[in-house]
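Consider the following input, taken from an annotated entry for Membrane-anchored ubiquitin-fold protein (Handroanthus impetiginosus).
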Amino acid sequence: MSGAQEQLEIKFRLTDGIDIGPKNFPVATSVATLKENIISQWPKDKQNGPRTAKDIKLIYAGRILENNKTVGDCRSPLCDVPGGVATMHVVVQPPPPEKGKKLDSDPKQNKCGCVIL
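Applying the prediction step yields:
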């Protein structure tokens, strides 16, 4: 058995087309670790970035990747190009607000008014 661990080169494509990476990851890296890496490398000038790994969904080969899976588990023979870069799409979805909290701080916000001249 060789001392070198198999690596996969991955870049992360944000919804606006900006890429993070590419960077090499061992195939034993978990999807949760990939998400933490994305948070640490998130462009500082972009607003509404993810705060936690739960805010991120990673999509590869048409599948949403689960946190407990590894990079090796998620590989698709159809998408693997020898010596190529795997592109994973990043979707930021903030968690829904807590049930007990009200979103509307301004009571006038839900009212509608018409003016006829």
